[in-house]
């Protein structure tokens, strides 16, 4: 099962570090979704997607700061009793000291972003969907023909690369030759070349050509 670390998630999305991961436990993200914990801050924990990255926006922050200190501590004690992978505070808002203390004590990393909550959530969902998309490596040649992905398959030596070269000569674009990495994001298939062979094509009698 694919998992990514909170640090990898933060680097990919350009998040600033408010509080780093503690040594108490190695944390990871294993689902392509987010959680906005407004209900949990109000005391409802019967349904709580604690395994997702926790995004705190303006609404959640306004509610947190409205609580009395004793109520806030009780809610945060219960909130951090779950195995939360990380917390992201949106809109460049300052992290409340009580939340920061609980996060540091529990070893939960806290990150910040200047983006608005909805914009960050959309970007993060795209990243997570691609990171956790099912992937498969196939033998064939993939081209972009008039904006449509076309994959030529067949046994080795039947002329797949030569056929693809003719299409390239007519203005179409090579995506991958011989080895194609395919992933499914939602209901859409995406194909690309592995980094090692990107932009290269093998032609019989010629060798490997950078096209």
Description of the molecule:
There is one protein chain. With about 210 residues, the chain is of the alpha+beta class. The chain is about 30% helix and about 25% strand. It has seven helices and ten strands. A four-stranded mixed β-sheet has the order 1-4-3-2. The chain starts with 5 loop residues before the first helix and ends with a strand.
TL;DR?
By secondary structure, the protein is of the alpha+beta class.
Mean pLDDT: 93
Give the low-confidence spans: none
Total helices: the number is: 7
| Radius of gyration of CA atoms, rounded to a whole number | 24 Å
Q: Name the assembly state.
A: single chain
| Bulk shape | elongated
The major beta sheet can be summarized as: 4 strands, mixed
- Alpha-carbon distance between the termini? 36 Å
Note the run of SSEs as H and E. HEHEHHEHEHEEHEEEE
**Strand line-up across the major sheet:** 1-4-3-2
Percentage of residues in strands: 25-35%
Helix content: 25-40%
Global structural class: alpha+beta
Per DSSP E runs of 2 or more residues, the count of β-strands stands at: 10
